[in-house]
Amino acid sequence: MAGEQNNIDDLLLENRKFPPPVDFQKNALVAGTFLYDEARADDEGFWARQAAELLHWDTDWHTICEWNLPYAKWFVGGQLNVSFNCLDRHVLAGRGDKVAIHWEGEPGDTRTITYAQLLDETKKFANVLKSLGVAKGDRVNIYLPMVPEAAVAMLACARIGAAHSVVFGGFSSQALADRINDASAKVLITADGGYRRGEVFALKPAADEALANTPTIEHVVVVKRGGNDVNMVDGRDHWYHDLMAEASLDCPAEPMDSEQLLFLLYTSGTTGKPKGIMHTTGGYLTHVTYTHKYVFDLHPESDVYWCTADVGWITGHSYIVYGPLSNGATQVIYEGVPNFPGNDRLWSIVEKYGVTIFYTAPTAIRTFMKWGDQEPAKHDMSSLRLLGSVGEPINPEAWMWYRDTIGRGTCPVVDTWWQTETGGIMISPLPGATTLKPGSATFPLPGITAEVVDESGARIDHGGGYLTLTRPWPGMLRGIWGDPERYKETYWSRYGDRYFAGDGAKLDADGYLWLLGRVDDVMNVSGHRISTTEVESALVSHPAVAEAAVVGANDATTGQAIIAYVTLRGGSSVDEGDLRNHVAKEIGAIAKPKTIYFTPELPKTRSGKIMRRLLRDVAEGRNLGDTTTLADASVVNELQKRAAEAPSED
Ligand code: WTA
Predict the structure, then answer these.
(1) What are 146's strand-pairing partners?
(2) Distance from the CA of 61 to the center of ligand 1, in angstroms?
(3) What are 471-515's pLDDT values in tens digits?
């Protein structure tokens, strides 16, 4: 009976279809299949047309795509400057007074920044970087709260050809130090602190801790935001505002090679060490400009766009900084948490700025659902016309709630699948052209080819399997910093000449794609990828801990929750809260386990491998499958008993 009900539910969900609303379609940039047709006939020619139409090039390319598996180069021989494309060209076209950023601080203070002002700041900061010895090809680390200076710093690096490596401000000093050292960065840009939940959080002390172990850093630039007291080291540390007061406004944008390294962004892998994902200039900017324009049906003259991501993640890079600014959009950037001072903060911002396009993550949507319909109901959100989702699979109820309650039942919802590695959106509806199904990312965008394969690598047309990408695309990663072997091994070894994304996916009878989550040992917590190994390493780094196994268990709010099983060293004891905080200190608060179970033994195979699959079953309250390879079955029985009893922490 229960099974039957599930079936009916599934069928119902799959049957709900939402064609583009007629009103939306009337003004949509794409309302038919022409882009798909063009790209299918000649994908390289299609991308070349996008690159030429959407960007300003100082030198034309001679080759659209050079593909030597697994390495791609795009628009080879071409030259352009990313900051020129994001700033100068809009000012030169007479749009200098257009608002680039409506910035809203958490306490309620605001800044309105036009394209002309953003260009001036960027030029000055580019000169600051030069004065600190940063040159083309160098790496610069950025560790900032959500302040406009984050965008300025990134654009200034791009202007002079230095690669930035942004580290999310919520990461710990250890995570920062590891990333600085992996990239051998020369300069760190940070802040005294920022605002979060109504209070100032200090950032500089964490940076200072990292700086004790980062020999390559020569200078530190500190943005004043929190107003908290900080320690400034003479000769090394400089206030942003002091340096800017002296900086010249004269800084022409130098044309960069299309394959010049634009940035590194670190992402978790299945082994402990984070991977420095490499993105370059011409292909990346083409990809993010194109997708930002067409997926969000951007009308820069009238839209007010808002992406709630943090600039420390790829979504912030591609869809706060580079895509929107390259397209000359007006956008909102908000500094703080969604529930300060009340649970309606985001909706008050939508109303205040007349936001028309809103892009957020399923974990946030589920949280808004929990907070209740009365919160959005307090505000006039009739300006909204399009909603987007990114970061993890969106369950159909959340999709429906988003469309109905935030989007008044009329806004299309674009569920966008992509990764740090892909640079930009890969699978998504085009809102004026695609009939939507709640919970499906629908189809690969024009120019992208994705296929689902079975375990043996054979392509399947229907049912579940593994998501692969079959052709190079302009925004694809160019490698892992300093580790070409790992690049090949991680993405290009499992299914021959296909890029393996690490995600499961299924195709339904209409050919719609449904993403099924990670197939490896990477957890997806609130849309952020965290590797089980990294959290285990952090736990084991505590002196009381002998061994740890970490799994991601389904969680209604955060997608997956981190559940840890810990064995203590003989004679040691530690409080669960202290251990959770230890992980936060080692990796960052985002990686704190939701629950830690202390156990005298971990379930292991006879060869000594921890059986994470069993632990996941235990954590999710499932009946255990095959336990025959288990060395000692009583261990699991005990854990099951405790899982049933234990209430979990926040
Ligand atoms: C997951 C974030 C389902 C997926 C842009 C992917 C998604 C990982 C979706 C990348 C989506 C992202 N539906 N799953 N719309 N978007 N994912 O690198 O598992 O932080 O591999 O990039 O998030 O996470 P990353």
Answers:
(1) none
(2) 32
(3) 999 999 999 999 999 999 999 999 989 999 998 888 999 999 998
**Residue 292 within any structural domain of the chain:** no
pLDDT, tens digit (0-9, with 9 covering 90-100), for 516-559: 777 777 788 888 878 787 788 788 889 898 888 899 998 988 88
Separation between Cα atoms, residue 320 and residue 305, nearest integer Å: 9
Tell me, in angstroms, the distance from the centre of ligand 1 to residue 392's CA: 5
Contact 541, 529 (CB under 8 A): no
Q: Distance, CA 554 to ligand 1 centroid (Å)?
A: 16
Place of tokens 């190079």: 472
Whether ligand 1 lies within 6 angstroms of the CB of 524 is answered as yes
Q: How many C-alpha atoms does 645 have within 13 Å on its Cβ side?
A: 7
Helix, strand and coil in the chain, % to nearest 5: 35, 25, 40
Give the 3-state DSSP-derived string for 198-255, with helices as H, strands as E and coil as C.
Answer: CEEEECHHHHHHHHCCCCCCCEEEEECCCCCCCCCCCCCEEEHHHHHHHCCCCCCCCC
Residue type, 387: L
For residue 172, give the nearest of 526, 583, 549, 650 by alpha carbon: 583
Dihedral sign computed on CA atoms, order 242, 244, 247, 248: negative
115 is a domain residue: no
| Arithmetic mean of pLDDT over the chain | 91
Q: Is residue 587 situated within a structural domain?
A: yes
For residue 419, the CA-to-ligand 1 centroid distance in Å is 5
Query: Comparing 239 with 548, which gets the higher pLDDT?
Result: 239
Structure tokens at 94: 């007479």
Whether the CB of 258 sits within 6 Å of ligand 1 = no
Cα separation, 205 vs 223, in Å, equals 13
Q: What is the dihedral of CA 49, 50, 56, 59, to 10 degrees?
A: -50
The counts of H helices and E strands in the chain are 23, 30
- Whole-angstrom Cα distance, residue 330 to residue 112? 10
* Phi, psi at 479, each rounded to 5°: 150, -175
**Is residue 614 domain-resident?**
yes
pLDDT digits (tens, 9 = 90+) for 259-273: 999 999 998 765 557
359 Cβ below 6 A of ligand 1: no
β-partners of residue 452 are 460, 467
β-pairing verdict for 499-507 and 330-334: unpaired
Domain around 558: 542-645
- The CATH number of the domain holding residue 577 is 3.30.300.30
Determine which residue's CA is closest to atom 13 belonging to ligand 1: 393
DSSP string spanning 407-469?
A: STTTS-EEE-B--TTT-S--B---TTTPPB-TT--BSBPTT--EEEE-TTS-EESSEEEEEEE
Distance from Cα 492 to the centre of ligand 1, integer Å:
18
Mutate to test the pocket of ligand 1, among 278, 313, 317, 529 (most ligand atoms within 8 A of CB): 529
Please count the structural domains in the chain.
1
Which residue in 490, 486, 480 sits closest to 261, CA to CA?
480
Calpha distance 648→214 (Å, rounded): 38
**pTM of the full structure:** 0.87
